[in-house]
Write a structure and sequence with these properties.
Blueprint: H1 7-14, H2 24-37, E1 40-43, E2 50-60, E3 66-77, H3 86-108
Antiparallel strand pairs: 1-2, 2-3
C-alpha cells in the first residue's frame, strides 16, 4: 500500500517519533524494489511462521497518478513456502489484482 506513494509522503508518515518503522531509508529501498517487481514478499516480518505475497489493487488517482485502493495477498505457513513456486503465485496474484482494478475503474465510469 505504501509503494505508490512518493518518498516524501512515506517519510512524512514514518519519519517521526512514535512510528513503528525504525529505519525509513531501508523501508524506502524495499518500496523501490516492490514498485519495480509489482509485488511484495513478507517472509515472517510481521508474524513468525507466516509468509505472504502481496500486490496492490490500484486505480487512477485524481492527480493523474496511481493510487493503491486495497491490497491482495496470499498467506501461507512458511514451512509450505517454496521459492520455486513464487513466479506462479505472483502471476496469479497480480492477474487477479489487475482484474479487480479494471472492474473498479469500470464501475466508476
Amino acid at each position: 500500500m505504501l509503494a505508490p506513494l512518493e518518498e516524501d509522503q512515506v517519510r512524512a508518515l514514518h519519519g517521526r517519533a512514535g512510528s513503528p518503522v525504525a529505519d525509513v531509508d531501508a523501508l524506502l529501498r524495499d518500496l523501490r524494489r516492490v514498485r519495480g517487481r509489482g509485488f511484495a514478499v513478507n517472509d515472517q516480518k510481521t508474524e513468525t511462521g507466516v509468509t505472504a505475497i502481496g500486490a496492490a489493487i490500484s486505480t487512477p488517482a485524481a492527480d493523474g497518478g496511481v493510487a493503491a485502493r486495497a491490497g491482495l495477498s496470499i498467506a501461507l505457513p512458511t514451512a509450505r513456502y517454496r521459492r520455486d513456486r513464487l513466479p506462479e503465485w505472483v502471476g496469479r496474484l497480480t492477474a487477479t489484482a489487475e482484474r479487480i482494478s479494471r472492474e473498479l475503474v469500470d464501475d466508476r465510469a
